[in-house]
Model the fold of this input.
Amino acid sequence: MHYPHRKLVLADEFDNRILCTMPSEIINKFEDVLLEGEWYFLGNFAVTDRLPHPSISSNNCHIRLNEDTITEKTDPKSSREIYSFCAYIDILLALIQTDRYLVDVLGIVTFVQKLQSGVHMSDTSDRPTERPLIRFVLEDLDGNSLKCIAWDNLATKFEELWTNRDKSSRHSIVLRFFSFNRWRDEWIVESERFISDILEDPPTPEVAIAKMRLETAVDFTPLDDEYEEQFP
Done:
């Protein structure tokens, strides 16, 4: 398979995120140097207009690495995981500038469909392909009901998490690097291939505090079969 570039998400100690890309011709130079979760000093890179989608911040730029880019490993600036739990209204405001917005979402699962197949555009060609998917609904910290779709290996991962959950309590999860995008006349939360993840209980204080808020927020009422009708 050939990909025109590799995407990375960079973040600083203040939780600021920016999309970073490396062209295919220099992937071999950096793929074993830039490791997820490590801290680096970067120099001699280009700052250009952001890619069409997905956007991971409200700014209009992204970083593009090149042959002259310098990378130096440095001491961690923060010991915690970096999440971007944005308020729903802030996401909608950001979506005025872009049609897809990449965020982290914490919520309680209130509805799940069975694993199935769906047609989705391929990342390597202009033709749609049939891929596994699962649809579910999350109630977020503010009581918003978010319709979600997980594709490919994340669909099977979510199905396994849901099947093996503790049925005596509410099931909360973190959607890592999922995108808000428009489907028909409403916004949905959808996984991005090669980027997204689903986490059940990541060991970070930010998630623990948010989960405490979820448990005491509101009563969560599962949706009925109308959800299935809205996603034929």
Observations:
- Residues 5-73 form a domain with the OB fold (Dihydrolipoamide Acetyltransferase, E2P) fold (CATH 2.40.50.140).
- Residues 218-227 have pLDDT under 50 and may be disordered.
